[in-house]
Structure formats: structure tokens, C-alpha cells
Amino acid sequence: MAMLAPVALAVLLGTLVFRQRVRGAYFAILTQALAAAMVILLVGQQGLTGGTNGMTNFFELFGQDLADDSTQRGLYLVVAGVLGVLYLATRQLVNSRYGRLLVAVRDGEDRVRFLGYDPALVKTVTFAISAGMAGLAGALFVPVVGIISPALLGVVPSLELVVAVAVGGRHALAGAVLGAVVMGYAKTAFSEQFADGWLYLQGALFILVMTLAPRGIVGLAGRLRRARTT
């Protein structure tokens, strides 16, 4: 259900929205508004979701104590393995004919429509795939951290993911992975050392990367590599 429910919701939303040719900033605003509405809905379900505190009674997984070091190491390996499999799968998808169609829809949606393809269907399928991956990530997040609250589903975490992709490099799949690692490490390090101002430092990191490397860390690394070979 952690994957099926997001996929079903994404298919429904994508069918309704993309058929109306909603795109760009309007689609981004719509998804953020839905995230905020979902948070309000979950907070209202005090008995089911624990309200603002969320669900915290996660102590065991398949009979294993989540606080045990061996269990945490096992979860780490599982998460790393799933990440690797998803990365390879998405890389194969991007390099496939469907991936080229995605690029075509991104660069010229109207031209793709004139060639006989349905951009709404293409974007809906992609939206559903990404929702399934997000649901799987959420299912793995809960046993690792031991808590899930409505605050983790709102607008701020969504924007943090966008920032992570921008920092890593939105033109490469590896950039999303690298950006998540960098932003996660920065968030932990800044919050521990600068409890009162770590959000400003996190924002400064984003501005610094976007100013010096608009294509992210991956783009900067590629530029430096090309500079050395010339």
C-alpha cells in the first residue's frame, strides 16, 4: 500500500491535471497546495495518525529491535541496495525510447502532440512512477528513523528535495543522489553546530552552488574535468 496508494493518487491527479494542460509553475503550485492540504487532513486524524506528533510507536520490524545496531546496519544495507536498484532502473528508463520521449515532451510538448503522441499520458505515467518511488522511500524511512509525522509530508520537505536536486545537478540522475547526500549531511552538521541559524546556512549553501555552478555539483565536476583535458 505504501507504493500502490501514491501511484493511484498520482494517476488520478495526473489524468485530471495534465489533460487540462496544466504545466510549469502552475503544476508546482498545485502539488504544493495538495501537500499542505494533506498535512491538514492528517493532523485532523488524531486517533489514526497521532495528530501533529505523528506515529512514533515503531520498536520492532519482523521481530527485530529497531534500536539494535545490527538491525540498523541491516536497514542501511537494504536502503542502499534499493537506492542502487532504483538508480539503475531509472537510468535504463532515461536511456530508453521512452526516456527520449520524455526529453521531447520537456523541450517541445506541442511538437510531440503534433507527432501523434499524448504528452498528458506520458507525464501521467512518469508522475505515477515517481510517486511509487516516493512511497517506497517513505516506507523505508519509517523503520530507519522510527517516526513519521505530518510535518514530514508538507511543503518544506518537498522544497528541500527540490533544493537537493538543484544542488546535486538536475541534469543528471547522479546529481539527485549526490544532492540528497550533501543536503542531508549539511542539514545534520549545521543543525548540530549552529542550532539557531542552520536554516540560513543551508540556504546559503543552495545560493552558493546555484551562483557558482548553475548545473549543480555534477555539472561543476564535469566542467572541471573538461578543463583539465583541454
* Category from helices, strands and their pairing: mainly alpha
- Counted up, domains total 2
**Number of E strands:** 2
Into which percentage range does the β-strand content fall?
under 5%
Low-confidence stretches: none
Helix content: over 70%
Shape: globular
Mean pLDDT across the residues is 82
Number of helices: 11
**Main sheet characteristics:** 2 strands, antiparallel
Radius of gyration: 20 Å
Order of helices and strands: HHHEEHHHHHHHH
Distance between the termini: 52 Å
- How is the largest sheet built, in terms of strand order? 1-2
Architecture blueprint of SSEs:
Layout: H1 4-18, H2 24-44, H3 46-49, E1 60-61, E2 64-65, H4 69-95, H5 97-107, H6 109-114, H7 119-145, H8 155-168, H9 173-193, H10 198-212, H11 216-229
Antiparallel strand pairs: 1-2
Overview of this structure, please?
- By secondary structure, the chain is an all-alpha fold.
- The chain has helices at 4-18, 24-44, 46-49, 69-95, 97-107, 109-114, 119-145, 155-168, 173-193, 198-212, 216-229, and strands at 60-61, 64-65.
- The longest helix is centred in the middle third of the chain and has 27 residues, at 69-95.
- The chain is globular and about 55 Å long.
- The termini are far apart.
- The model has no long low-confidence stretch (mean pLDDT 82).
Annotation keywords:
230 residues, two-stranded antiparallel ribbon
Quick rundown:
By secondary structure, the chain is an all-alpha fold. The protein is built from 11 helices and 2 strands, in the order αααββαααααααα. The protein is globular and about 55 Å long.
